[in-house]
Design brief:
Blueprint: E1 2-6, E2 16-22, E3 29-30, E4 35-40, E5 45-49, E6 54-59, E7 66-68, E8 72-78, H1 116-133, H2 136-144, H3 163-172, H4 174-184, H5 232-247, E9 250-258, H6 260-277, H7 284-297, E10 303-305, E11 310-312, E12 318-323, E13 328-329, E14 332-333, H8 341-356, H9 362-365, E15 370-373, E16 393-406, E17 412-425, H10 431-446
Parallel strand pairs: 12-15, 15-16
Antiparallel strand pairs: 1-8, 2-4, 2-7, 3-6, 4-5, 6-8, 9-17, 10-11, 12-13, 12-14, 16-17
Helix pairs in contact: 2-3, 7-8, 7-10
Length: 454
């Protein structure tokens, strides 16, 4: 019995999805709950499991094609196994496979010859595990750079291949990837004794630090003189940013905050926190705590504009903007006003780790009511961020700078100062409310530390 598979809705606000990769080809048998297609949206990449056991008979959507949720994308003949000689149907031809790389020389060490068969089998198993563990985004990035994931030694948890591993291999070129694969299959006891380093090669003969210009330029590795193709996430990010600037009249304000005592408090706590929880204690959780406390006094900052009126959210869910090599994501700390500084630090650390390992799910990314952006991590002094669609504002914490400040008694002292910048939807928030919110946020931040309890 044929079963039609439709484009899933990966999130309450998601209306379309892109078939990033077919994990099965027509004629392949598919087990129930086995992933058979990778779908990409502006929020998340996800592998879609089959709802039935059967044979994948038709692919109705090409790789790279974007369709609305609910659109048929494939047909699975439930309970039907592929018989010998049967010809599977396919509504759209699959794109041609990229040309195979040239044969690579096999490198052998005298110490490894006797046990090469066993080590080879072990490496194949390790490579297959790496391929299964890599996220859809990592696999897609590897395809763009013609990198075989099974040849890489992953630096992530349990040997998972990460974006950084793929980009490192792309920068080093094919020869380095071969060397990495060989190194991965050699045990420490088999490594030959070190030899004297070769003489420094001339600059002209050194390997390039980026892929040659014949390679495809990507967002993570843009090549001058080439076009970076827009994937689905970047297209929708661009669309949402334009919509936000077009629909929401942006206004902007900034205050300067003395975080000297807060900085001392964080310095005193950070090593013990790292040992206890495994996450770095940054200024971010302190900042979020002050943000949600100020929202309690200025609830219009936690609202959105609708045609019926201004809707004030009952929950305070804080999005934290995270820039990745290939994307921008805003995971959400749910009910942030109910968490202590310690709790905020742990949840933020978990979300940042998941974002860097491409493990965020739809629930992690939905439901935000106000956004915080830590531009200061990259040294930014002031910025005017674009509001996340459907929210009233976004506030940034900029770089902490040591500089002379005139105190109330006209004395001059060296203090740790930080700018806080607020972009707001002027349909929801007037200048009076916005300036009052920033003043309250400043007061709360300056009142934190040097002593206190997380």
């Amino acid at each position: 019995m044929p079963t039609t598979i439709t484009m899933p809705q990966l999130g309450e606000t998601v209306t379309e999805g892109t078939v990033a990769q077919w994990l099965k080809k027509p004629g392949d048998n598919v087990e129930k709950y086995e992933s058979f297609v990778e779908v990409s949206t502006d929020k998340v990449n996800a592998e879609v499991p089959s709802p039935v056991t059967g044979r994948l008979s038709q692919l109705l959507v090409k790789e790279g094609e974007t369709v609305a949720t609910g659109t048929p994308i494939a047909i699975i003949d439930e309970g039907e196994a592929l018989t010998e000689g049967s010809a599977p149907e396919q509504a759209h031809p699959q794109p041609e496979a990229p040309p195979s790389p040239p044969p690579q020389a096999t490198v052998e060490h005298p110490q490894t010859t006797a046990a090469s068969a066993g080590n080879g089998a072990a490496y194949v198993r390790d490579g297959a595990a790496a391929l299964r563990g890599a996220s859809p985004a990592v696999r897609r990035l590897a395809r763009e750079h013609h990198i075989d994931i099974t040849t890489l030694r992953g630096s992530g948890q349990n040997g998972r291949v990460t974006v950084d591993d793929v980009m490192a291999a792309a920068r080093m070129g094919p020869a380095a990837a071969v060397g990495q694969a060989v190194a991965a299959s050699v045990t420490p006891a088999q490594v030959p004794p070190p030899q004297a380093p070769p003489a420094q090669a001339p600059a002209a003969a050194q390997a390039p630090t980026h892929p040659p210009t014949t390679e495809t330029s990507t967002y993570a590795a843009p090549i001058p003189g080439t076009i970076v193709p827009l994937n689905q996430a970047r297209r929708i990010i661009a669309q949402r940013m334009v919509e936000s600037k077009h629909n929401a009249p942006h206004a902007w304000s900034m205050v300067e905050v003395d975080v000297t005592n807060l900085w001392k408090w964080r310095q005193r706590e950070k090593e013990a926190f790292q040992r206890a929880h495994g996450y770095s204690l940054t200024l971010l959780p302190f900042f979020i705590r002050a943000v949600v406390e100020s929202i309690a006094d200025f609830p219009l900052m936690n609202a959105r504009f609708t045609d019926e009126g201004i809707y004030v959210h009952p929950d305070v869910n804080i999005g934290i903007a995270i820039g990745l090599p290939t994307n921008l994501v805003v995971p959400v700390i749910k009910h942030a006003d109910k968490l202590s500084i310690r709790g905020l630090a742990i949840v933020a650390g978990q979300l940042i780790e998941k974002a860097r390992n491409n493990k965020l799910n739809v629930d992690d990314l939905g439901g935000g009511t106000f956004t915080v952006n830590n531009n200061g991590a990259n040294g930014s002094y002031a910025s005017a961020p674009i509001i996340n669609g459907g929210q009233a504002g976004i506030v940034t914490m900029e770089a902490v700078v040591r500089k002379p400040v005139v105190l109330e008694n006209d004395a001059i002292a060296i203090r740790s100062m930080m700018n806080c910048c607020l972009s707001l939807d002027h349909r929801v928030v007037d200048g009076y409310v916005a300036s009052g919110y920033l003043a309250d946020l400043k007061k709360r931040l300056e009142g934190m530390g040097p002593d206190g309890s997380l």
